Amino acid sequence: MESVANIQNNAVKKLAGYVNALRPIIYINHFDFQAVDCLIRAINDKAKIKEYNEADGEVDFETKARKQKYDLNSFLLAFDDNEEKEIFLVLKDVHHKLRNPEICARLRSIAEKTIYKEGMNVTVFLVCSELVLPPELEKIVTIFDIPYPGDSQIKAIINDYTENFNIPIADNTRERLTVSFRGLSDFEIRQILNLAYQESGLIDHDSAKLVLEEKKQVIKKSDILELVQDDSDFDDIGGLEGLKDYLLKKEKVFKNIGEANKFGLDLPKGILIVGYPGCGKTLSAKATARLFDVPLLRLDIGKIMGMYVGESERNLVRAIKTAEAVAPCVLWIDEIEKAFAGINGQSGASDIITRLFGTFLTWLQEKKGAVYVVATSNNIEKLPPEFLRRGRFDELFLVKLPNKTERKKIFENHLRKRGQLSGEIDIYSLLEKSPDGGKTCKGTEGFSGADIESVVKEAIEMAFFANGTLSTDILQECINNTISLSDTMKDEIEELKKRYEKHNFKDANKEPEITKKRKKNEAVLSSKSSGNKGYGVGTISPGSGGDAGYGVENIIGSLIGGHPIFKYLTNDIG
Length: 574
Ligand SMILES: Nc1ncnc2c1ncn2[C@@H]1O[C@H](COP(=O)(O)OP(=O)(O)OP(=O)(O)O)[C@@H](O)[C@H]1O
Ligand SMILES: [Mg+2]
Prior knowledge:
CATH superfamily of the largest domain: P-loop containing nucleotide triphosphate hydrolases
Structural class: alpha/beta
Shape: elongated
CATH architecture of the largest domain: 3-Layer(aba) Sandwich
Radius of gyration: 30 Å
Low-confidence stretches: 518-574
Strand order of the largest sheet: 4-3-2-5-6-1-7
Number of strands: 17
CATH topology of the largest domain: Rossmann fold
Helix content: 40-55%
Bound molecules: adenosine-5'-triphosphate, magnesium ion
């Protein structure tokens, strides 16, 4: 196992490599100035070091004692005239000053002398908690990222900490924490271990919860990704069983990343969900994070566009790095076709968008970390074809209008969510045209999930204003009054259908249509065989079911409002 000293060595070697190659200005974007000081000192323990920071002016690098208080320009001017030629110049937290052309010119002057003047050897370290890089400096600045510790390094830090304080730690706790600590610095890892130990006197599985809190801080501080707090649950999705089955397999990997890695399994990259409007794409993206039990981060390409040359790309890289730091996480990009509109000359994307697209695509293809990308789109015509090629996303899913089985589940889910799912409501009668030629109820064929949700909401509101009881009649009335997606977008839906057929998308709506109607003796009962929190439909036949005296034949794994008296049968069904 790697020692802690070794970890620092790797960073020192890399930084020393830059210094020896006479890179004149090195930008270290980090918040832990003490760690950066150690690193700089370790490159060359004899080097003369001059330090300036925004708060105190010139200070002694070793003792931090104030030497002289003047502004950055005067400091650089005095230095530029100075005869000393072999020196490290450490400038801390000066990022706000880098927008000043005079400062930029002064830094360029020092850099050029180092590059072109014999015997002049100055390395400027810009040590800032923010990355600000004006175009004038771009070519002469080297950005140095202090690498995050890898798995064996994280283990070394945990061991170092626990051995120092004589704290016992179980092997599986160490494994679990190692995965959680990915993307955090040595300093942050020690801080969390400290906090966990202070709080509970132990380092155990619960310590990992503190890691999530710390990672949330990382996202908030970066202000480039949005941390979405959403309570959409996987069980809220009605239907889309094809997509759900697929994600349930990925859940296993995401919840056991340590073991999956050991086993040699590649971490899943992510999926692209395309399909009809209002049919659950966004809902599925949000629910994936809940399923994996990881933070949901939203990437908004509009938000990362910057004013300076190269700023947008740097912001995208920063967003990607933040996501990697927070991993395991879900990175959600809604309506991805809008983010990269006009790529491939369709409507003349700007150079910036084209470059952003390239950066994103390369990352997607090469990424190894536990960032699961879920992108959604309802307009594949505008979607760059690169996204549809193999190797970018693991799978491309098509979400269609819900079939009868799915409509039933969507009704149940939305009724249940609002506490209105009861055996009194005949959901079957809401799914298709009523036998009187659709006079009583026109049915919900061609309705999107969003249409069904709005029917449920409206019906509940009507019931509240009428007599306080939601009934099948009210729901039917609302259905009849609803102009569905297929009504409003008839031609577009046909057009979309043709477009989708041209591609080889995986079917998100795997489930077969319900083919039978409920029989007379079919009752509603609680079922855990559905794998859901809801109720199942079964046929009750007295005498065939052991102790309970009931057997269940023909469980249609679907869900419907249940009656409490049947709940005790659950065990027999399971
Ligand atoms: N399969 C479903 N199960 C449960 N609710 C659904 C389903 N599909 C859609 N809904 C409901 O409809 C609303 C809209 O769904 P969502 O935002 O996921 O659609 P979308 O496919 O992303 O649409 P768009 O293409 O317009 O962005 C959500 O509030 C959700 O509750
Ligand atoms: Mg959406």
